[in-house]
Amino acid sequence: MAGRLINQKDLRAAILDGAVMRIRPKAMTVCVVVLGLTAIMMSDGTGSVVMQRIAAPVIGGMLTAPLLSLNCNSDPCFTD
């Protein structure tokens, strides 16, 4: 029965395989957004004060959200 989870070991293997498949796209997205917003944070042109106030929390969220989704969302599946 291909594609079916029969026991806890199969579930754990499926979760780990899914996490490995998602880590690279998440890391690439975070890097691109953080690098783009870092340029906004370093600017000093017209309107930069407003954009810096917007960019600062987005950078923090982009750094913490992937850690939260990769660590905390898969933890309940591993508890026995």
Shape: elongated
Secondary structure category:
mainly alpha
List the uncertain runs. none
User: Which oligomerization state do the chains in this entry correspond to?
Assistant: single chain
Distance between the first and last residues' Cα: 24 Å
Mean pLDDT: 83
> DSSP strand (E) fraction?
under 5%
- Most strands sheet: none
Helix coverage percent: over 70%
How large is the count of helical segments?
3
CA gyration radius, whole angstroms: 19 Å
Instruction: State the total count of DSSP E strands.
Output: 0
What order do the helices and strands follow?
HHH
Would you mind describing this structure in some detail?
The protein is mostly helical. The protein has a domain at 29-80. Helix content is 79%, strand content 0%. The protein has three helices and no strands. The protein has helices spanning 8-42, 48-71, 75-78. Helix 1 runs antiparallel to helix 2. The protein is elongated. It starts with 7 loop residues before the first helix and ends with a helix.
Write the layout of secondary structure elements.
Blueprint lengths: L7 H35 L5 H24 L3 H4 L2
Helix pairs in contact: 1-2
Quick recap of the structure?
Helix content is 79%, strand content 0%.
